[in-house]
Specification:
heterodimer; A: about 450 residues; alpha/beta; D-Maltodextrin-Binding Protein, domain 2; 2 domains; six-stranded mixed sheet; elongated; B: about 300 residues; Rossmann fold; four-stranded antiparallel sheet
Amino acid sequence: MNKILLIIRREYLTRVKKRSFIVMTILGPLLMAATIIVPVYLATRTDEVKTVAVLDETGIFYQKFKDSDNIKFHYIVSDIATAKANFSKTDDHALLYIPKTEVTLPTNAILYSEKSVNIDVKSYIKNVMTKQIEDMKLQARLTELQTDKKEPVSVDDILRSIKTSVDINTMKIGAGGEESKSYTELNMVLGMFSGILIYFFIFMFGALVMRGVIEEKTSRIVEVIISSVRPFQLMMGKIIGVGMVGLTQFLLWVVLTFAIVTVVTSTMSSGNITHSATEQIMKQKENMPPAVSQAMTRDDSSGGGMNEVMEAINSVNFPVMIGSFIFFFLFGYLLYAALFAAIGGAVDSEADTQQFMFPITIPLILSIVMAQYIIRDPDGPVSFWFSIFPLTSPVIMMIRIPFGVPYGEVVLSMVLLLLGFLGTTWFAAKVYRTGILMYGKKVSYREIWKWIKYK
Amino acid sequence: MELFSAQAVSKQYATHKALDKVSITVSDSHIFGLLGPNGAGKTTLIRIINQIIAPDEGELFFMGRKLQPNDITRIGYLPEERGLYKKMTVGDQAMYLAQLKGLSHSEAHKRLKYWFGKFEIQAWWNKKVEELSKGMQQKIQFLITIIHEPKLLIFDEPFSGFDPINANMMKEEILALKEKGATIIFSTHNMASVEELCDDIALIDRSRVILSGSVRDIKKTFRTNTFGISYNTYEEALQAILPSEFQVLSESRDTDHRHALIKLPAEATPNDLIKAMLPSVTIYAVNEKIPDMNDIFIQAVTRQSSQPVTAE
């Protein structure tokens, strides 16, 4: 056991000390921060004034949407069919349709637009609607309390009873008036993001494991080492060591990206639309009891484009998401890293890896190609099978999870991934053990099959 | 006294039998030569001794009991295919490999400092391996092999890639290790070094041991009753004065003497040869031509009858 720690330590330290690691650790967050900041920055910089037509069948939101520098609201009275038909003739950026409800307060709205709707616009509308409904609920509750004159009720209870979640569906409306659901849902972003993250992690660090094995083979040190440790210890030590390098890099990226984004957004925030919009809401909140406004701040915390992520986080089961991300992230890596190690052991140089890389990269690439389809139909049979099969489940399951997956399926997928990991490691250990001692031999699949049967 | 033995060890690869009931016995504080042509199974046997691969059949004994997994800390192995991490510094690397052999951090450091001092290579400690010449790297590999002071040392083709000066230094180190009580298994094609270093050998050919025993005994069994003789004052062909069953293999001359190589019949002694020659020539020297290991190797391997020969 002590020896495997020595191996892990060496694998970790030699890589972390490398210049390329340090460069990547700094460049990565800069790029990631840029991809977050630039779209937000551009979106907030547009001088164009966007107008939103409001078709409010309920009438409660009349005059509640305040015009700002970049968004103007005007209210129309019509039926939705005509409004949609006329929409393309107007210059309006979007058409907000709040359908009439009979008994309850409205919590749904549809936002029609030709282009995708600006995130700021959407989140502003959502905030205003939530706020208005919550105000109304609060009002109703307070009058109720006054008339009843019963025992005092805690603020928390009141808050819980008025808590409202407004859904705004965005629909694309074509020039001809036909519509299709536009996929800007936030859980999609989250699912795609974590799926792609796992994909990259597996590829980058799996390939690093493979290169490490090849290096040991070509430098001919491997036989010296395995006269001191078991080949399995060497292989697992390398996989774990490289995995820890990956985790280190990943954590540094998250921390640094977060730091950069926070610093940059706070310096460029003053006077932009997002804030003027949120400030309005903040001002309204000042009239409320402090506890109430505090509770609400949690929901619509500041930061322009970050709202999207925040909303997704609210709508997603956070502990399940993080827990399963860590699980699929780690075991997905371990499963594939074992296969990469086996390839490294079987070949003599990186040029020979092509034929063996193929069957391993296929399921990974397929996962990413399938992602679009999975998102459209996250509960369909195809999605189910891909998220159960261990070679595709790390990516596909992560894409599905933000949409809500039954626990049974998640557990099944995890168990299968665990079994898959044990299976590939067993297989890889056999191939690796024989392969690392074979020099200057062109290896075929048939040859590898024989190795597996050796004692 | 026996330090290590392998008994009826067999190893089968998919289509080819690498070892077929191979038995060897290595005595304590001896240098044991493991000989054989390429592909005979030497490396497979060595890997089995190092527990890198497992035998299909047979048993291995070390220090009077069955070979155990943690015996690898008492064995030092210098493989034929050997190398070092190119990007790592010499010191880090030596420390890493020494610790993998079970030395503690401080012990590894102490011993490495001693050996680096002895070989006068302290200046290499912080150099990357890729900056060193091949000979320098070999020295470090050798040093790492012996750093944990193993009871049994296994060298697979240790002299390949060495220049004569370094090869000589290695030989001296190997002999010094033997003096200190180490037992050495030594695999090579270089028969000259076998004769110089080895006490016992086993010759493996086509997966079997075809010859084993002490070098002296083996040489004896390969005696052919052939004598070299140096003489003078006789200019004719030598066969004319010898009985016909005495076979003249070669004749030559240099500035001082004439020389001949003569194979005697099995029952004849050198005295018979001298008697036959004395009347006609002046004899300066007679000596027996004992075959060298190279001849024995070639003879044993090319002999088609694969009956194992044992000289005990």
